[in-house]
Amino acid sequence: MATPNFIRVSPSVEPEVSRPEPEKVLAGDPVHTTWNLEERDGLYCGIWQSTPGTWRISYDEWEYCHILEGISVISEDGGEAVTVKAGDSFILLPGFKGSWQVIETTRKDYVIRL
């Protein structure tokens, strides 16, 4: 029995397909697919996927990520590159600036708080 306060999380909604803005792309032609599962009161969650490529990122929001599959390298300007793979979880804080490189198509669960 479904209840109004329970949402099953699965990519059953129509996905949005996009690419990073051309001026942010550093390598390749990454294609992003996003299944937005919930949007309310400054909270967003869902599943995101990207094909290989590298682009600049800049965060004004807080984001929790859990990598479901693939391999990516996240580099903060002036910091170390961090490789993330299936099973890894991490948080990107407001003010993070750097690059995201997808080595193998990467899929993640995410929760964003504005």
Description:
- The protein has a single domain (16-113), classed as Jelly Rolls.
- The protein is built from no helices and nine strands.
- The chain has strands at 16-18, 25-28, 32-40, 43-50, 53-58, 62-76, 81-85, 89-92, 97-113.
- Strands 1, 2, 3, 4, 5, 6, 7, 8 and 9 form a nine-stranded antiparallel β-sheet that branches.
- The radius of gyration is 14 Å and the shape is globular.
Main sheet characteristics = 9 strands, antiparallel
- Average pLDDT rating: 93
Radius of gyration over C-alpha positions, nearest whole angstrom: 14 Å
What's the name of the CATH homologous superfamily?
Jelly Rolls
Name of the CATH class: Mainly Beta
Give the % helix.
Answer: under 10%
CATH topology: Jelly Rolls
Order of helices and strands: EEEEEEEEE
Poorly predicted regions are none
The number of strands is: 9
CATH architecture descriptor text: Sandwich
The secondary-structure class comes to mainly beta
The end-to-end distance, rounded to whole angstroms, is: 32 Å
Helical region count? 0
Q: How many individual domains?
A: 1
